[in-house]
């Protein structure tokens, strides 16, 4: 009786090793990149990018509509006078302020009680430097630059 069990055990072990060697030769995992998975990844990334652009557009649009409503302060024009320095004309209510803007500093150059540039007139915006020169020559040498 012992030889039959031995033959049976040897046969089972042989069958186990044959099936194990067949599974070792076969790849256990499918390839990582298939045509459908690449298309799915590209479409997902495209959707996320479009979603980000749509959110940015919506946020920018909401800021523009809320910023313009009821605000009495706005930048009329700006002129670059150096690599990082600018002269900016800001309107607050009926007054206009000429500001010198540099990194870390904002200086009041001149205050105008009546507007020197109409904010709706786009032709005057383009000639801001000419108006700035005229205003400085009218000041008769007064300078409020600190």
Quickly describe the structure:
The chain has 146 residues and is of the alpha+beta class. Helices cover 51% and strands 21% of the residues.
Secondary-structure content class = alpha+beta
Question: What series of H and E elements makes up the topology?
Answer: HHEEEEHH
Shape: rod-shaped
The number of helical segments is 4
Flag low-confidence runs: none
**Approximately what portion of the residues adopt beta-strand conformation?**
15-25%
Number of DSSP strand runs: 4
Helical residue percent band: 40-55%
- How are the strands of the biggest sheet laid out side by side? 1-2-3-4
Oligomer: single chain
Task: State mean pLDDT (0 to 100 scale).
Answer: 75
Tally of discrete structural domains: 2
Determine Rg (CA atoms, Å): 38 Å
Describe this structure as you would to a colleague.
- The protein has 146 residues and is α+β, with helices and mostly antiparallel strands.
- It folds into two domains: 2-67, no CATH class; 73-138.
- Helix content is 51%, strand content 21%.
- It contains four helices and four strands, in the order H-H-E-E-E-E-H-H.
- The protein has helices spanning 2-25, 35-68, 122-126, 128-138, and strands spanning 73-80, 86-92, 95-102, 105-112.
- The protein has a four-stranded antiparallel β-sheet, with no helix packed on it.
- It starts with a helix and ends in an 8-residue tail after the last helix.
- The mean pLDDT is 75.
